[in-house]
Amino acid sequence: MTLDEIRSIIVASSPSDWYVAPLGPTYLHSFGGGRPAEHASRACFIPEVSLGIAFGLDVDDEELDLDLGWNRRFCNPAVSRSFADVLWCGMLIERRMQLNVDGCRAVFPIDGGRLGPADCRADLFGAPSFDLRLARLVHCLSGLQDTLFDEYIARAGLVEVAER
After folding, report:
1. Edge-to-edge, what's the strand order for the sheet holding 18-20?
2. How far is CA 66 from CA 71, 101, 105, 145, in A?
3. pLDDT single digits (tens) 13-56
4. Domain tally, the chain
5. Using one digit for the tens of pLDDT, what is the confidence trace for 70-127?
6. CA-to-CA distance for 139 and 148, rounded, in angstroms?
7. Burial (Cβ within 10 Å: 0-12, 13-18, ≥19) of residue 30
8. CA-CA distance, 150 to 164, in Å (whole number)?
């Protein structure tokens, strides 16, 4: 299986295609930054259990006060960063940083920056397809509502753009 095939599976999948392991240790630890940490959850793709996603490994100890443009549109503009890891046979094959926004009420991809007038409206921000779809999947697998993801994305002005 190639990395592009795995990305295609993830993009085409829905939350019901995944099994989220019950709460408990994920056995995927990080010892950087002077403190041990681990992913909050781990899921496997039901049709092919060799494919997994681990998510919720915090990058930061606390929320960040960043001005990303769109985050000021939420009640809580602070963001925190976490990793979503794609695993094949337990081996890390893809890692994407994601943003937990509005008091962890939604999971966002790291956006690709403001879209200029030639591409779209100046108040919109682009997110590559795979990143946006992975963020939606992690959002839903985290127990958050799919419809809320759409509302948050629309409010932020994030739009899906082609991979570069």
Report:
1. 18-20, 41-45, 51-58, 79-88, 91-101, 106-109
2. 8, 11, 17, 25
3. 999 999 998 876 655 656 565 655 666 889 999 999 999 999 98
4. 1
5. 777 888 888 888 889 999 999 999 989 888 888 888 998 875 554 444 444 555 677 8
6. 9
7. middle
8. 23
Q: Are β-strands 51-58 and 41-45 bridged in parallel, bridged antiparallel, or unpaired? A: antiparallel
User: What is the DSSP pairing of strand 29-30 with strand 18-20?
Assistant: unpaired
Residues 6+ apart with CB under 8 A from 75: 102, 103
Q: pTM for the full model? A: 0.83
Residue pair 146/15 in contact by the 8 Å Cβ criterion? yes
Tokens of 81: 């960063």
Query: CB neighbours of 76 closer than 8 A, spacing ≥ 6?
Result: 101, 102, 103
Q: Residue 123 is encoded by which pair of tokens?
A: 């108040």
Domain containing 149 equals: 3-161
Cβ atoms of residues 39 and 52 within 8 Å: no
Residues in the chain: 164
Phi, psi for residue 131 in degrees, rounded to 5: -65, -40
Q: Which residue has the higher pLDDT, 76 or 68?
A: 76
